[in-house]
Specification:
It holds the Pfam family ApbA. The protein has two domains: 180 residues, NAD(P)-binding Rossmann-like Domain (Rossmann fold), CATH 3.40.50; 132 residues. Helices cover 52% and strands 19% of the residues. The chain is built from twelve helices and twelve strands. The strands form two sheets. Strands 5-2-1-6-7-8-11-12 form an eight-stranded mixed sheet, sandwiched between helices. Strands 4-3-10-9 form a four-stranded mixed sheet.
């Protein structure tokens, strides 16, 4: 299959590596020195937890032309950046598009692409659980033993042909696909989970080892408050069991988050991303505030954490 990964950050590079394992014809959109590095040295990924490094040969482009046709396009950019490339995606002739990553306005993104496009498009949304950073000509990627993606339609199942294309792309790779039919609810529920942690990160200047137990408690309470707010607006909490876990297994959630922020995992999964993605987190925060105002609910734990972080966000955006 001919596949484009539009975006060459950690998530895009890890995804391109996985797609190469499936014997696909993989192209990655990259720019500047990073594009030159990939062209000269290959796509080099150090898999932090697995203690090995891979090198793949991929095609590179720096611009997506209107007539560049791909079987699949995965857009792997930060939320604020995705909003700026919707027109380019819409102008392209390719039919199947997967927007991968944080997204507070997935419905609006899908509608913009379809309304701006002269060709028929089918759009899916996905999230790949990968953290890390780029340095010295390589990507340092932190992920579980089997990398995977939660993927699906905005509010319903993908067409069978679209689903088959995605499955075929990852045949014989070990990449795990988790199908979700309400990615709008899933993405908003995910934001309810990550934003409190991001607030903590910014309140301690991205040094998570300074996190207090009180902040951990507030983060769990804030996510529960956000679940109630989203439900009031009619959004389902996804995946199944997520809302209950924050209520019935609250202490377990606190212990897991405390362990995360006090170990290297927190650095790679949370603080590294937060420190390099302040505009994205700020954009997510602003959209979440709009939902809060629309719902008109009280969220004291959320507001407490947000107020601790707001000075950092204001100074770095």
């Amino acid at each position: 299959m001919r596949i484009l990964v539009y975006g060459a950050g950690v998530i895009g590079c890890e995804l391109a590596h996985e797609l190469c394992k499936g014997k696909n014809d993989v192209t990655i959109l990259a720019r500047g020195n990073w594009k030159q590095s990939i062209e000269k040295n290959g796509l080099v990924v150090q898999h932090y937890g697995q203690l090995h490094t891979t090198k793949d040969s991929v095609n590179t482009i720096e611009k997506l032309n209107t007539d560049d046709k791909y079987d699949l396009i995965f857009v792997t950019m930060q939320y604020n950046q995705i909003l700026n490339v919707l027109q380019q995606i819409a102008n392209n002739v390719s039919h199947y598009i997967v927007l991968v990553g944080n997204n507070m306005t997935p419905l609006n993104c899908a509608e913009q692409i379809k309304n701006l496009s002269t060709a028929e498009k089918e759009i899916a949304f996905g999230f790949q659980g990968t953290g890390g950073r780029r340095e010295n000509g390589k990507v340092i990627s932190m992920h579980s033993f089997h990398v995977g993606m939660t993927v699906g339609g905005l509010n319903g199942h993908l067409t069978s042909d679209f689903q088959k294309f995605i499955i075929t792309a990852f045949n014989n790779t070990g990449y795990q696909l988790t199908w979700e039919q309400n990615m709008e609810g899933w993405l908003l529920s995910h934001a309810a989970h990550i934003l409190p942690t991001a607030y903590i990160c910014y309140s301690v200047d991205c040094n998570l080892r300074r996190t207090s137990k009180e902040q951990i408690r507030l983060a769990i309470d804030a996510t529960s408050e956000a679940h109630k707010m989203l439900k009031k607006l009619g959004y389902p909490i996804r995946p199944d069991g997520e809302e209950e876990a924050y209520k019935e297994k609250r202490k377990k959630k606190q212990r897991l988050l405390y362990l995360m922020v006090k170990t290297p995992a927190g650095k790679y999964v949370i603080s590294t991303h937060c420190s390099h993605a302040v505009p994205e987190m700020s954009a997510l925060d602003q959209k979440f505030e709009e939902l809060k105002r629309k719902a008109g609910v009280s969220m004291p734990a959320w507001d407490n954490l947000r107020n601790q972080a707001i000075a950092f966000l204001d100074n770095h955006c």
